[in-house]
Amino acid sequence: MKFHILTIFPEFFRGPLDYGIVRRAQEAGLAGIVVHDLRAFTHDRHRTVDDRPFGGGEGMVLKPEPIFECVDSLGLSPREARARARESVVLLSPQGRLFDQDIALELAGLERLVLICGRYEGVDERVGAFLADRELSIGEYVLSGGELGAAIIVDAVTRLLPGALGNEASAQQESFTRGAAVTGEGPSSTCGSGGLLDYPHYTRPADYRGMKVPDTLISGNHEEIRRWRRREAVQKTARNRPDLLERVALSAEDKQLVETLSARDK
């Protein structure tokens, strides 16, 4: 998969994408990341990428010309044909659809993904209306620019590419992942998150400063461990992200646990 990142601060990406899974995926040829400096697509001696907004107002707006010309240089399919070509142009914007694990999984099926990093007061609306095929936001807050959001999307998408993780089941068990069944040979004490938050994790030592690992996890009973992890995942989701419970399929046991927790909190 090839990522193209369009930014006025290309140096920003010299660090965040050079470590861990993203770096290994690039070294293995699973992912390629190209950062494009939008100032290279300007035509004045000041390399101007922004201007004052029509109608007045505070701040500056990123001009459309450098962004359109940079995307033109990539040789993408026409906007209406991108889905068939497995390509997408994304504008990072606070006004965009909230990025989540489902969107990450969808983007992981593409061959080319272009990420446009906004800056200043915003991006000329014609970029979103006529060039990008979607707008995405990483959260309900405002950042100085889209660079951090682009790095987050690259990381989230890359780890879903086949072969990027050492153990493919890892992605199936993580928070927010829906509809994935954990596969493998032999007894399994893991459970897919099913769209819930992930279950708690412990490692050695079993007793640290009097804080002990739950007995179930060292019992060797795979079914009891799996059930414990499911219960803990439901409890953590109910406590931290109760909104997720409305989106996932819960078993009768899960529902009973949620009812018990709700009654306890009243």
Summarize the structure.
This protein has nine helices and ten strands. By secondary structure, the chain is an alpha/beta fold.
Give a verbal description of the structure.
This protein folds into two domains: 2-158, Alpha/beta knot (3-Layer(aba) Sandwich); 172-265, Trp Operon Repressor, Chain A. 32% of the residues lie in helices and 17% in strands. The protein is built from nine helices and ten strands. The chain has helices at 20-27, 64-72, 82-85, 101-107, 125-130, 147-158, 169-173, 222-240, 252-265; strands at 2-7, 32-37, 50-51, 61-62, 87-98, 112-117, 122-123, 134-137, 207-208, 211-212. The strands form three sheets. Strands 2-1-6-5-8 form a five-stranded parallel beta sheet, sandwiched between helices. The protein has a three-stranded mixed beta sheet with strand order 3-4-7. Strand 5, helix 4 (101-107) and strand 6 form a beta-alpha-beta unit. Helix 8 crosses helix 9 (252-265). Residues 180-186 have low confidence and may be disordered.
Which key terms come to mind for this protein?
266 residues, alpha/beta, Alpha/beta knot, Trp Operon Repressor, Chain A, 2 domains, 5-stranded parallel beta sheet, 3-stranded mixed beta sheet, 9 helices, 10 strands, 32% helix, 17% strand
